[in-house]
Design brief:
Layout (H helix, E strand, L loop, with lengths): L3 H16 L25 E6 L7 H16 L4 E6 L7 H10 L4 E5 H4 L18 H9 L1 H8 L7 E16 L6 H4 L4 E3 L3 H10 L3 E3 L5 H7 L4 E4 L1 H6 L8 E17 H6 L2 H35 L3 E4 L2 H10 L1 H11 L1 H10 L2
Helix pairs in contact: 2-12, 8-14, 14-15
């Protein structure tokens, strides 16, 4: 049976879930293929892990792999109840539940993470962690990752790892081969402070918009561009309307694995060590799969007629130059010494 405090947390999570709105509009039958092949009712430790996106994305599907490995290697003591497709609400709602302990874990988008703790915004700054190689170096260098990991400790949240969803660029309804052509596009950007500052510095038109509103806005022409990755644009059918993609490679899209610190510390030492090791190993595998998945999705999109462009190095350099006010502003929030250290070590 679940321990009393875990049962109370589960009840609170279900209560908050009901408050977050009906799920009838979402087709959750797709998740049947990922149902566990074991009975989790006897687990001592229950870990509700939330995400808003689709588990077909490698960086999200990792939740199920973590679930199955932990169940097996903990001998049925830890059950990871993975809830993708926004079953527990939007990201802002889930962060609140995570702080309360009603949800124990969250694969949080990197664009949202700066709202949790400003230091987490470092992964969104343009041209800082702009390749998968730099991302791996950041993750595997303790002097760089440890401050990132502990950035939200004061809020009762620990960052334990991250997966990805590809390299950022522009999906558009008209070709964008140069910065001059980008000036005619109204880009949808996420509800994230770093992104807003970036687009203001770049002097490009943008609209801050919740992700669920994007399909209709694209179809009606309210927006004619998206700041996102090829994986997400392909899997979520945005290429049905936006027939062009400009590779910027200005940052890597991440799902940052946040854990309620009190829950993590409640685990016996041996299970806590196992939990962290499994998350680390499966996250590393998922990041490798993300590289493969991005290449596959680009090839599929090209075969379907989507045209891909590379922004020139000169235009990329100009974007970096224009972003200097962003580095200054966020350097104060993140910590100038830390930002400088990350820049220097990832050159």
């Amino acid at each position: 049976m679940l321990r009393k405090k875990n049962l109370l947390a589960l009840c609170l999570a279900l209560f908050l879930f009901l408050l977050s709105g009906p799920t009838s509009a979402r087709d959750l039958t797709v998740l049947e293929q990922w149902k566990p092949d074991f009975d989790p009712s006897g687990a001592k430790y229950h870990y509700i892990l939330s995400n808003v996106d689709h588990p077909a994305i490698a960086g999200i599907g990792v939740g199920y792999k973590i679930r199955d490995r932990l169940w097996k290697e903990s001998n049925g003591q830890i059950y990871v109840d993975f809830r993708p497709l926004a079953q527990l609400g939007g990201e802002k709602d889930v962060v609140s539940k995570l702080k309360l302990g009603a949800v124990q874990g969250m694969l949080c988008s990197s664009v949202m993470a700066a709202n949790v703790a400003p230091q987490l915004g470092i992964v969104n700054l343009p041209f800082i962690i702009d390749t998968s190689a730099k991302l791996e170096a950041f993750r595997n260098t303790p002097a760089l990752f440890d401050p990132f990991s502990h950035a939200a400790d004061a809020q009762g949240i620990r960052v334990i790892d991250f997966t990805g969803y590809g390299s950022y660029g522009w999906a558009t309804t008209t070709p964008v081969r140069t910065l001059d052509e980008a000036k005619d596009v109204n880009f949808r950007i996420a509800q994230a402070p770093v992104n807003k500052d970036i687009y203001q510095a770049w002097n490009l038109k943008f609209t801050v918009m919740p992700w669920p509103d994007v399909p209709q806005a694209l179809q009606t022409g309210v927006i004619n561009g998206l700041d996102h990755t090829p994986i997400v644009c392909s899997i979520t059918k945005k290429f049905d309307v936006a027939k062009y993609f400009t590779n910027l490679h200005y940052t890597q899209g991440l799902y940052i694995h946040l854990v309620n610190l009190a829950w993590l510390n409640s685990l016996p030492e041996d299970l806590r060590t196992l939990f962290l090791q499994v998350v680390k190993e499966e996250s590393a595998k998922a990041r490798l799969l993300t590289e493969e998945q991005q290449n596959q999705q680009i090839q599929q999109a090209q075969a379907a007629g989507i045209q891909f462009f590379e922004l020139s190095e000169a235009d990329r350099a100009l974007l970096k130059q224009k972003a200097q006010p962003v580095y200054e502003k966020w350097g104060e929030k993140i910590g100038r010494d830390y930002l400088h250290q990350v820049e220097q070590q990832l050159q």
